[in-house]
Design goal:
heterodimer; A: 196 residues; mainly alpha; Arc Repressor Mutant, subunit A; two-stranded antiparallel sheet; 9 helices; 2 strands; 70% helix; disordered C terminus; B: 210 residues; alpha+beta; Immunoglobulin-like; 2 domains; 8-stranded antiparallel sheet; 40% helix
């Protein structure tokens, strides 16, 4: 049986910079659900479509700015998405961001892993599942600060105030959580391949 | 801190996607891609004004002049191979396995040519197999944009092994990994047909000699 090796995100981004619509659509297929879920939880379903369109058109317009020598595409694109989503959320006030981020944390902590599907046989899906498990397995206090920071866009001072915890403790929890997630990402590699 | 958060964002994003009930509506994909195409045409016009383009244009002019002088003695087969190789470097810069195969001394290379058109603008392709690796690299150039509801499928003998999606320049490539080394075949073909076809019953665009 033959197995297809998908082009890497970085190769696709290079093709997008050259105007390759097929590569753009491929990156949409890989990351649209992620952007949409984040926007839907933080801003509401009604705005999520608009966010996805804006984020991907930003990718289309700025793909030439991505430099693989400076980091992986997923981190660069995640920053593009985060900038757009958090900027919109900030217009709605801090309280709403905290509430939405807490709901995301609840979801990550208590929702069961999705049932295995045919699609999950793909290597990249297995990798995503492993990364999701790494987030779920974080100690609750570490997961809480990292979710408030990443998904809610709160500063460490804002997080300290929101959860009534000393700033130094928030910093320590954040550092530990980041270290564990970095280790998980490194452990599970970054090459994309799928059964074909 | 933002940089570190973004580095960890892959895991966080994967976790939320896995557990969230929210999924983008199917029609959103078409809308976003259509808008990108519309913007792309606008961007192409604006590109004429960018300084890097001017430098690139000057370099291109020099390249064209040099190519004209050199090209008089260059045979068509070599020219085709260089073109494919150049486009491959652009498209597959991060896919190291592609170049492990294509650049290997022991690579087996098959050329695919149009079955109906022998003009210099006809589509063409190449398939590369290394006898000591389980990979196949296929690439094609000058492929017209497929009509709606049609795709370019690569067949090795009777087996469809993938889809070629040409970029705006008509170039496409992909890589396969088999379960074992020593892949052999009698004929490679690129066939234009509906996406769900697996029997090579569409139009043969290019093919290798049997």
């Amino acid at each position: 049986m033959l197995q297809t090796i998908e082009p890497s995100d970085e190769a696709l981004a290079g093709r997008v910079a050259g105007g390759d619509v097929g590569a753009f659509a491929a990156l949409y297929d890989r990351y649209a659900a992620r952007v949409y879920a984040w926007a839907a939880h933080l801003l509401g379903v009604a705005e999520a479509d608009d966010v996805v369109q804006e984020v991907f058109l930003r990718l289309w317009d700025r793909a030439h700015q991505f430099d693989p020598a400076r980091g992986r595409f997923v981190a660069w694109f995640g920053a593009v998405a985060r900038h757009e989503i958090i900027a919109r959320a900030r217009r709605r006030g801090r309280e709403q961001r905290i509430v939405a981020a807490e709901e995301i944390e609840e979801l990550l902590a208590h929702t069961a892993d999705p049932a295995p599907s045919v699609e999950s046989r793909a290597w990249s899906a297995q990798r995503d599942a492993a990364l999701a498990a790494a987030v779920r397995d974080l100690p609750v206090e570490q997961r809480r600060v990292i979710v408030l920071a990443y998904f809610g866009g709160l500063s460490q001072s804002e997080i300290a105030a929101a959860i009534a915890t000393p700033l130094g403790t928030v910093k320590k929890r954040t550092r530990l959580a980041l270290q564990k997630l970095r280790n998980a990402i490194a452990e599970h590699g970054s090459t994309r391949a799928s059964a074909g | 801190m933002d940089h570190e958060l973004n580095e960890a964002g892959e895991a966080l994003g994967a976790a939320l996607e896995a557990r969230s009930p929210h999924r983008p509506p199917a029609e959103l994909r078409d809308r976003v891609v259509r808008e990108a195409v519309r913007r792309g045409q606008r961007g192409a016009r604006q590109a004429w004004l960018r300084p890097p383009f001017i430098v690139g244009a000057a370099a291109l002019a020099l390249l064209v002049a040099a190519s004209l002088a050199w090209g008089l003695s260059l045979n068509a087969a070599l020219a085709q191979e260089r073109s494919l190789r150049t486009q491959l470097e652009d498209a597959a810069a991060k896919d190291e396995v592609v170049f492990d195969v294509v650049d290997a001394r022991n690579v087996n290379k098959t050329t695919l040519r149009s079955t109906t058109d022998d003009s210099p603008t006809a589509p063409y392709g190449k398939v590369f197999v290394r006898p000591d690796m389980p990979f196949i690299v296929a690439m094609a150039g000058r492929l017209p944009e497929p009509p709606a509801g049609r795709e370019y499928h690569l067949y090795l003998d009777a087996r469809r092994i993938g889809t070629l999606t040409p970029n705006d320049g008509g170039f496409a490539y992909f890589v396969f990994r088999a379960d074992a080394v020593g892949i052999t075949y009698q004929q490679a073909r690129i066939v234009l047909e509906p996406p769900d076809r697996t029997d090579a019953s569409g139009s043969v665009v290019v093919a290798s000699p049997r």
